[in-house]
Description:
The chain is an alpha/beta fold and 335 residues long.
Amino acid sequence: MTTPPFAPAAFPFARPRRLRASPWVRRLVAETTLTPADLIWPLIVHDGAEDRAPVASMPGVFRLSPRAAAQAAKEARDLGIPAVALFPNVDPATKDAIGTGATDPDGLIPDCIRAIKDAAPEVGVICDVALDCYTDHGHDGVIENGRIANDASLERLAEQAFIQAHAGADVVAPSDMMDGRVQAIREALEANGLQDTLILSYAAKYASAFYGPYRDAVGSAAMLTGDKKTYQMDFANSDEALREVAMDIAEGADAVMVKPGLPYLDIVRRVSETFKVPTFAYQVSGEYAMMQASIANGWLDQDRAILETLTAFKRAGCAGVLTYFAPQAARLLGA
Length: 335
Ligand code: PBG
C-alpha cells in the first residue's frame, strides 16, 4: 500500500465535519469573534416630558429624556459597550426651513451630551450631523429654489458639528450625504481648537426603505416631502461607494460607515478591503423592526438571530456595528 506524501483535500481524507464535531473545536477554529466592544448603541432622545416613551414601530426602543439617556450610557458602560450614538426627536413646533434647532448650543443634543458626560464620561458619544430632525421639510440639508442646496447646507452642517463637539461629543458623524461635508466639518473643528474630535462619516449611505421606523421615531417622517434620492446613494451602485469613501477619507474622516447593514455587506467587504480604515455598519431601524416582528410572532429565535446577524457584520469586515440590539447582544455575550 502506498501512502501519498500529503493527504489530498478530498473525501475521505478531508472531512470538514471533524472541525465542527464539538463545541471546543468549533470555538477553537472560529474565524470571527463578536464582543461587546464591537457595539455602538443608538439612542433616540427627545425633549418631551416623559423619561421613556415607547416607539411604536420599534418595539423595545424608547425615546429618552436627557436624564434617561445618561442612565442608558451608564448601562452601556456596565455592559462594556464603548459608545452610544444620539438621534434627536424635537418638538415639531420648533422646526423650521433651516433647522435652527440643530445649531442651538443649549438644544436637546448638547443637553444630552453634557448629561451623559456627567454620568458616564468613559462612554464615547457619537452625534449625527444632519438637519432632518430639525427641518420642517424633513430633509438633511437646506432647500433653495426647490432643490437641496449643497454648499449652503455645508455651512449649517459644519456649525452643527462644531456645536456638538464643543458640547463634548467625542465623534461627529455626518449622515447627510452632501458633497464636501467632511472637509467643511474638519475645517470648522480645526479652526476652533477641536482637532481631536473624530469624524465617523456615513460615507456610503443609501436611499433606503429601511429607515422607515427611524423616521417615525425621530418624527421626521411626518415632515418629509419627497425622497432623499438626490443625495443618498442609489442601491444599484457599488463602485460609487468606493468613490464616496475615498473622498471622505481624503477630506479628514477617521472612520467610515456603510448604511443600511445586512443587505449591504458586499459594500462593507469592498470598503474594508480597499481602504483599511475602521469600517462600521448600521443595522438600521427597518432591519431591527423586521427582526422584532418575526421574534414577536415566534418565527425567529431572538438570541440566535441577534448574534448571527451581528457576527455577520464582523465577518464581512466591520470594526463595529451600530445596533438597537446592543444591550441585549452585550448581555448575550456575557457582559
Ligand atoms: C438622518 C438619519 C437617518 C438614519 C440615521 N440618520 C435616516 C434618514 O436618512 O432618513 C436612519 C437610522 C435608522 O434607520 O435606524 N440623517
